[in-house]
Every structure is written in structure tokens, then in C-alpha cells.
Amino acid sequence: MISDQAKKEIDIWVAKYPEGRQSSAVMQALTIVQKENGGSLTNELKQAVADYLEMPTISVQEVATFYENYNNKPVGKHVIRFCHNISCMLNGSDELISYLEEKLDVKTGEISKDGLVSVKRVECLGACVGGPMCQIGDQYYENLTKKGIDEILEGLT
Amino acid sequence: MNNVCLKSIDKDNPSSLATYETMGGYKVWHKILHGELSPEKILEELKISGLRGRGGAGFPTGLKWSFMPRNQEGQKYVVCNSDEGEPGTCHDRDILRFNPHSVIEGMAIAGYVMNATVGYNYIRGEFMEPYYRFEEALKEAYDAGLLGTNIKGSKVCFDLYSHLGAGAYICGEETALLESLEGKKGLPRFKPPYPANVGLYGKPTTINNTESFASVPEILSRGGQWFADLGVVNSGGTKCFSVTGNVKNPANFEIPMGTPFSDLLELAGGLREGRTLKGVIPGGSSTPVIPAAEAMKMTMDYDSIEKAGSMLGAGSVIVMDDTTCMVKALTRLAHFYYDESCGQCTPCREGTGWMYRVLKRIMDGQGKSEDLKLLLSVQDKIIGNTICALGDAAAMPVESFITHFREEFEYYIKHGKSMVENDG
Fold first, then answer.
1. What order of strands is seen across the sheet that includes strand A134-136?
2. Identity of the residue in A59, A89, A129 whose CB atom sits nearest the CB atom of B332
3. Residue of chain B whose alpha carbon sits nearest to that of A126
4. Window B:114-153, CB contacts with A under 8 Å
């Protein structure tokens, strides 16, 4: 269920914590297997993480549903996480999110018909001086404009 | 400007060990390794410096460190809170990206003072660029023999690791952060016991904010008095401020405490053409809003901002001009706290939902004349009745927005639309 490569990555995290405290690595373990699974988690994957880290399944389930960055339902190939908090809002994030929704013909929380993109409204991502901003994968895109969004979308394949 | 935590920002290759060392970096750490600086002397300098916790609570850092039972047997921990998520705040991100070695050195010094041999830097899960920069710096520090066991032949040991979050504002609360670091939901712990006695894995732990740790090496290098004199009474030193919202050039500025707000506004390019100032949230979304006239009189330090009716918080200055609909602004903040409440305490879990739904109703044109009274009553029942400060943080903006901009709320309820042209 968990690939050897993912296990290797998880082990790097486990080694950071004291003996017997491998559950500290659960957040990264979920992040790693989620990435490998195309961006979302399944019950089987959560079970596999629980088994691998010798944790109760319910504890993994709790973590997977508490934190915003885990997707417990399938998502698009790329997830555009758009900040709509106050500093971004004051600089026009609402307007840009509407533009994005219109352009992709998708509402926030949904996946585009071709499965390529999902859009999420998220709370502050800590790049307020560059608002409006969004995150795709590991990358932040700041000082966004409609033109900037067009360029980002063109780059998503 | 930018002469403590952000001093490498204009340099080439700002995050590298070489750059840090040319600026005097690790000088203090070497002194410690040579046995030339005692924990007592460090605590004394920190107390003189007037450094207060930069994460928002403003607790004196030197005092916090002195609470650790340094002579107690067993493992002790140092934890850095890089879970920067207070809306309007993004300077820790720049410290991690551009001056990561100052955080490493600050944490190592803390470990030495408190006899803690292991440290974790909890970085929010979205901060991948800062995380990679920090990891690179960590590798450089290990390769240079600055971390590890019996460092440079001394008796000093310190291992440091980074940990990544996964998106939860509440984990910026120090005991929620510890729960999260242990691999659980980020639910704040009941205090006492305080982390200095029962912290990470039940062991004595001290948690400080990124900027606090990053300030320590420079303070010890140049002296506590030097730092204290940069600021004003009760607010020693410099502080990083993120200036965002309706200004021409939103950016981070590290400036002396006590700098007039009007000067900081000027640094950020001032307001846009033809606009006037309406209100300022000075310390991040959890701190009360201040109307323009009061804001223009305040200086950026703990006492002056408190006198103006708010708090310095995390140093996150959100500027709102006359185009801002205050009903909309408050509704957005209310949604944030509703979304981020961990759900542990009933007043916060239910109260944040009530406040958001009532505000949403007003925004939808369905507001009732008694709604403002209801909002004030709900926020009053949250304050002081929850385990952690998120409840208070959700409540305080409500009271301040309604107090200072009451007519905008009344107008919205009466007319079903915003008083501000082209908005709502």
C-alpha cells in the first residue's frame, strides 16, 4: 500500500523523534502518501500509515480530518489554494477568485470537468505582503492579477 | 532599518552560512563553546535587552527561559514556533528564508542556557520554500560542526530538527503546537502545568517564536543594553512589522520600537492616491481595530498601542482605507475564527459559529435590529471562558469593530447594503 520510496521518506522523519515516538511523524507520513496518491487520502492509505507507525487507526483518522492540508476526497491534479483572508481581501482576492471560478467553470471546493484543477478558498497562508496570493503544490504565487492567473493556468498541464 | 533579524535581506545569498558569518554570526555560539559565556550571564543580558516574545503574547524572553528547571535530570526540549498564521503576519517567513542561521544559533543558545539538548522548529506545512531554506542552513551548520554531540570538542550538545505542520491556525498556540508535534490533533492543553514543567513528550520544554530566537544572537553579540536602547521603555529593541492592506507598497519592515505609526505607513508608501485612512488593525487579526485618528497618534510599541485600545500582537499592521466595508472586513475575520476554532471549548466552538452566522445574515440583507446586541453578547460570553486565547482573539475584533464603526453596521442592517460605495 505504501511504496518503498514513501517508506524511505517517512523513515527520515521517524528518525527525528525519540525512540517510541514515531507517531510524531504521522503528519508528514500522511503528506507523503497523499502526494503519491495524486493529492488525496483513502481509508486504506490511512490504515496503512497507522500500521506502519504502529498507531491506532482512529488517531490517524483524527489527524487526517483535523488539518486543512489533507484531502479526504479526490481532488484535481493541481489544487489552487486561494487565500481569502483580510489582507488579500483588501487587495481584491474575492474578485480574483470569482474570475478563476468563471474561467475554469468550477466553484471553489469543486474539480474542473477535465480533472485538471480544483480550487479551494483557504485561510491566511502567511504571505500577506504579497496578497492577493495562492498556493499550488509547494509554490506560492503572489501579487496576483487576472493576467497573472491566466499565465498560471496556461502553465498547468 | 532591518538591523537585527532581517539584516541579511539585501545581501547576496542571504541565507548562507558564509553570509551569516560575515555579519558576525555564530560568534556568540563559539564563545559558548569555548566556555566564555555562562547561562547566568546570557539570562542577565536578555533581561536587560527587554526582549519580549515576538509571537504575540509579549512575555519577557529572558524570564521565560529562567523558568526552565535546567538542573533537573532527563531530557528537555527547545521548540521554535514557526507556525506563522495570524492573518496579516508574514515576517517569520522572511526570517526563515533570508536569515535561517539566526534562528539556528538562537535555538542552540537557548538549548545551552536551559540544558536542553534537542530542539524542533515547527514550520507551518505550507511554508515549503522557508522549510527548504531552513533545512539547507541546518545541513550547513551540521557540516561545519556547529551542531551535534560534544560540539567542537566541548561538552555542549545540541541536535536540531525541523517539523512540518499541515494547516491549522490553532497550532500557533504553544500547547496545541506541542500536541501537534506529538502527532495529534492540535488541541490546546489546560494550563497549569506549563510547558516549562510538562511540555513535549511530558518533558520540560520552552517554546519561543521565530523572531524571538532570531533576535538572541545579535543581542548577546552587541549587548542587552544596545538592544534595549534601540527601542523605548517596556519595548526594547527593534521589531518586524508586516504592513498590509490598503497601502501602496505592502512589505515587512524591521524598525525600532516606538517608531510613530505615521512613519511606518510612510515606509509602506502611504495610502493610495485620493484615499483616506479609516482604521488600522495593529497586531494581526486577533487584535482590536483602531480608528484612523487614534492610529495616527500612536507609536509602534506595547504601551502606546495598548493606550490606543489595541495590542502590538505579532506586529501585523493591517491598513484599511475609506473604500473598506467594515461589516465585510469583520465578517471575513469571524469566518476565519469559526473555521479555525479547534472545537474543544463550547463557548468558542459555538460562539464563533454564532458570530459568523449573524454577520453573514447582515451581509445577506437579513440583519435584524437586535443583531448588534446579540453579537456583543456572544463575544462577551466567549472572552475568558476558553482554554486558550483563540476565543478571546475571535471575540475582541467583534467588540472593537462594532464600537468604532457602529453606524456602518446599523446602516447595513437597515438598508441591506453597505454604506461604502461599490462594496458589500
1. A117-122, A78-83, A134-136, A139-141
2. A89
3. B90
4. 120, 124-129
Residue A62 and residue A58: Cα distance in Å, rounded? Answer: 6
- Identify the band that residue B1 occupies on the pLDDT scale cut at 50, 70 and 90: confident
Of A18, A28, A126, which is closest to B85 when you measure between CB atoms? A126
| pLDDT value at B406 more than 50 | yes
- Residue A113 CA to residue A107 CA, distance in Å, equals 11
A contacts of B164 (beta carbons < 8 Å)? 27-28, 31
Give the chain A residue nearest B252 (alpha carbons): A129
pLDDT tens digits along A88-134: 999 999 999 999 999 999 999 999 999 999 999 999 999 999 999 99
- Is the Cβ–Cβ distance between A105 and A113 less than 8 Å? yes
Across the interface, whether the CB atoms of B245 and A90 are under 8 A apart is answered yes
- In this prediction, residue B3 carries a pLDDT of 87
Q: Does B184 touch chain A (CB under 8 A)?
A: yes
Residue B1 CB coordination number (10 Å)? 12
| Chain A residues within an 8 Å CB radius of B168 | 66-68
Q: What is the 3-state secondary structure (H, E, C) of B128-161?
A: HHHHHHHHHHHHHHHHCCCCECCHHHCCCCEEEE
For B125, the closest chain A residue by CA position comes to A69
Name the amino acid, one letter, at B400: S
One-letter identity of residue B126: E
Q: Which of B89, B129, B164 sits opposite A27 (nearest CB)?
A: B164
Q: How far is B128 from chain A (nearest CA, A)?
A: 6
Q: Is B238 exposed, middle or buried (0-12, 13-18, 19+ CB in 10 A)?
A: buried
The predicted pLDDT at position B81 comes to 98
The three grid cell numbers given for residue A135, joined into one nine-digit string:
498556493
ipTM of the complex: 0.97
Reduced to 3 states (helix: H, G, I; strand: E, B; else coil), residue B47 is helix
Over the stretch B304-322, which tens digit does the pLDDT of each residue have?
999 999 999 999 999 999 9
